[in-house]
C-alpha cells in the first residue's frame, strides 16, 4: 500500500514538474536534464528545481527591469553624435557583429578610444589605484568578488583617500561573491569614509523559494572621472591570497584600461543595476566633454538574467560565423550550449583555425567532467585544445582573425549565458586584437595540447562519467 502511494506521488510530482517546465518553454537540453533528475532522484530533483530550476529574480526586480528597459534605450538613443562611429566602415564580418550588438542591447558603436591591455593582476591593480589617486570628480566600481588581503588592502586605502578628499566614491558588490568581504573590517572602514556600498542580490535563505539565489552579478567594472574605465576578468582579489586551498594555483587574469566614451557608457550600465537593486531612478550624469583619446572603436555589451533571450550567446555565434581565418578563445569554464558547439565545429570544418585555451585544473569537479565530454567532438574536427598549466587561467577573450576582439567577464558556459549579469567589450581594433593574441600565445607557451588518440585511450569509466555529467550540464 505504501509502495502504491509513493508510486502515485512520484507520478504526480513528475507530471507537475513536467507541466511547469513545458509551460515555460525551457530549452530542450535543460528540460531533459531536469526531467531525468526528477525521475532518478524525485525528492532531490524536485527540491533542486524549486531552488534553481527557473530564473526567478523576484517580482520587484522584474517590475523594475520592465520599467527600466525603455529608459535605457532612450538614454542610448541620446548618446552624442560626436561619440558615435559608423559600423559601415568596418569589414563585413565585424559590421554584422556590430549591428547585431546594437540591435540586441541598444548600445551603438563608439569611436575615439585608447585601449591598454593589462595582462597581469598586479599591473592592473597598480594602474587602477593610480587612477583612483588621481581622480578629480568620481570613482565608481562594480565587481563580483571582493576578497580582503594583499593588494586589495591597498585599493581600500586608495578609495578611503579619495573619499576623504571629497571625491564621491561608490561600489557595487555581489552579495554571494563578496561574502567574506562583507564580514571584514575593511567594509566598515569604507563606509565610515563615506564610500557608498550597494550589496547586489542579497542572499537570504528565507527567500530561496521566491528568488533564485545563484543569479549573480558577475561583472567587473571600474570607472574613474567618467573618462577612464577598466573591465575584464579580474576580481578584487589578490591571486597570492585568493582560494589558495583549491589546488588550482594562482588565478591568471587580464584587464583592459579604456580612455574614451565607453567609460561613461560602462558607468551607465553599472548604474542601471544600481537602479534595479535599490529602486532608485536611472539618471546617469550627462556625458563629459572630452576630446578623442585615440582611434579605437568600441562597443559595450551588457547581458543578464532579466532578459529571456541569450543575447551574449547570439553575439558569440555571430563572431564565430564571421571568422575567415582564425578564432582563439580563452575561458576557465567551457560547458557550451549545443549551438555554440555546432558553430565551433562548423568553423573548423570550413577551414578556420580554432584554438581553445583552458586551464588544466579548475575549481569545480563537476564542470571539469562536463567540459571533458566535449573534447573528442572538438579534437575530431581539428580544433586545437591547449591546457594551461601555470594556474587557473581566468581570462575570458575571443580574438577573430586578429581583426576584432570580445573581451570581458563571460565564460563559455550556460551560467554566463543565462544566469549572471555580465559585461563584454567588443573592440574593432587590429592593434588591440594583436596585443590580445600575443597574450594568448604566451598562454599557449605554458600549455599542453590534447591529442585525439591519447584522449580516446583514457579509461572507460572516465568517458562514461564525463558523458553522464554532461547530460546534467544545463543545471551546473
Largest sheet: 15 strands, mixed
Mean residue pLDDT: 91
Cross-sheet strand order for the largest sheet: 4-3-2-5-6-8-1-9-18-16-15-10-12-13-19
- Rounded to an integer in angstroms, the radius of gyration calculated over CA atoms is 23 Å
Q: Helical region count?
A: 18
Q: What is the percentage of strand-forming residues?
A: 15-25%
Work out the oligomeric state of the chains in this entry.
single chain
Shape: globular
Low-confidence stretches: none
Structural class: alpha/beta
Q: Report, as a whole number of angstroms, the end-to-end distance.
A: 37 Å
State the helicity in percent bands: 40-55%
Keywords:
18 helices; 476 residues; 15-stranded mixed beta sheet; alpha/beta; single chain; two-stranded parallel sheet
Characterise the protein shown here.
By secondary structure, the chain is an alpha/beta fold. 45% of the residues lie in helices and 19% in strands. The chain contains 18 helices and 19 strands. The strands form three sheets. The chain has a 15-stranded mixed β-sheet, sandwiched between helices. Strands 7-14 form a two-stranded parallel ribbon. Strand 2, helix 7 (151-164) and strand 3 (169-174) form a beta-alpha-beta unit. The longest helix has 22 residues, at 2-23. The protein starts with a helix and ends in a 5-residue tail after the last helix. 46% of the residues are buried.
In short:
With 476 residues, this protein is an alpha/beta fold. The chain contains 18 helices and 19 strands. α6 packs parallel to α7 and α11 packs parallel to α12.
Amino acid at each position: 500500500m505504501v509502495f502504491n502511494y509513493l508510486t502515485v506521488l512520484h507520478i504526480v510530482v513528475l507530471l507537475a514538474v513536467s507541466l511547469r517546465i513545458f509551460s515555460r518553454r525551457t530549452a530542450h537540453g535543460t528540460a531533459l536534464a531536469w526531467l531525468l533528475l526528477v525521475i532518478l532522484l524525485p525528492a532531490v530533483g524536485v527540491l533542486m528545481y524549486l531552488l534553481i530550476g527557473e530564473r526567478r529574480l523576484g517580482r520587484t526586480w522584474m517590475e523594475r527591469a520592465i520599467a527600466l528597459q525603455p529608459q535605457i534605450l532612450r538614454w542610448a538613443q541620446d548618446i552624442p553624435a560626436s561619440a558615435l562611429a559608423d559600423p559601415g566602415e568596418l569589414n563585413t564580418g565585424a559590421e554584422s557583429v556590430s549591428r547585431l550588438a546594437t540591435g540586441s542591447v541598444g548600445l551603438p558603436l563608439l569611436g575615439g578610444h585608447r585601449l591598454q591591455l593589462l595582462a597581469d593582476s598586479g599591473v592592473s591593480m597598480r594602474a587602477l589605484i593610480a587612477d583612483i589617486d588621481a581622480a578629480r570628480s568620481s570613482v565608481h566600481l562594480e565587481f563580483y568578488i571582493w576578497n580582503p588581503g594583499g593588494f586589495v588592502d591597498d585599493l581600500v586605502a586608495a578609495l578611503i583617500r579619495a573619499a576623504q578628499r571629497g571625491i564621491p566614491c561608490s561600489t557595487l558588490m555581489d552579495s554571494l561573491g563578496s561574502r567574506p568581504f562583507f564580514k571584514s573590517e575593511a567594509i566598515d572602514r569604507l563606509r565610515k569614509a563615506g564610500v557608498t556600498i550597494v550589496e547586489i542580490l542579497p542572499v537570504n535563505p528565507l527567500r530561496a523559494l521566491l528568488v533564485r539565489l545563484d543569479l549573480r552579478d558577475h561583472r567587473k567594472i571600474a570607472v574613474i572621472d567618467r573618462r577612464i574605465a577598466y573591465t575584464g576578468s579580474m576580481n578584487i582579489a589578490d591571486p597570492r591570497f585568493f582560494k589558495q586551498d583549491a589546488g588550482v594555483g594562482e588565478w591568471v587574469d587580464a584587464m583592459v584600461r579604456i580612455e574614451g566614451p565607453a567609460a561613461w557608457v560602462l558607468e551607465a550600465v553599472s548604474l542601471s543595476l544600481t537602479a534595479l537593486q535599490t529602486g532608485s531612478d536611472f539618471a546617469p550624469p550627462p556625458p563629459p566633454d572630452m576630446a578623442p583619446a585615440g582611434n579605437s572603436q568600441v562597443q559595450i555589451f551588457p547581458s543578464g538574467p532579466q532578459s529571456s533571450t541569450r543575447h551574449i550567446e547570439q553575439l558569440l555565434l555571430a563572431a564565430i560565423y564571421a571568422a575567415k581565418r582564425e578564432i582563439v578563445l580563452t575561458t576557465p569554464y567551457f560547458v557550451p550550449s549545443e549551438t555554440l558547439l555546432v558553430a565551433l565545429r562548423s568553423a573548423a570544418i570550413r577551414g578556420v583555425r580554432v584554438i581553445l585555451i583552458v586551464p588544466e585544473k579548475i575549481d569545480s569537479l563537476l564542470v571539469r567532467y562536463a567540459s571533458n565530454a566535449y573534447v573528442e567532438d572538438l579534437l575530431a574536427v581539428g580544433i586545437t585544445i591547449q591546457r594551461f598549466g601555470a594556474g587557473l587561467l581566468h581570462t575570458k577573450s575571443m580574438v577573430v582573425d586578429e581583426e576584432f576582439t570580445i573581451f570581458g567577464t563571460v565564460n563559455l558556459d550556460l551560467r554566463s549565458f543565462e544566469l549572471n549579469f555580465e559585461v563584454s567589450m567588443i573592440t574593432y581594433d587590429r592593434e588591440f586584437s594583436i596585443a590580445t593574441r600575443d597574450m594568448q600565445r604566451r598562454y599557449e607557451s605554458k600549455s599542453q595540447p590534447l591529442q585525439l588518440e591519447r584522449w580516446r585511450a583514457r579509461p572507460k569509466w572516465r568517458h562514461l562519467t564525463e558523458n553522464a555529467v554532461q547530460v546534467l550540464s544545463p543545471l551546473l
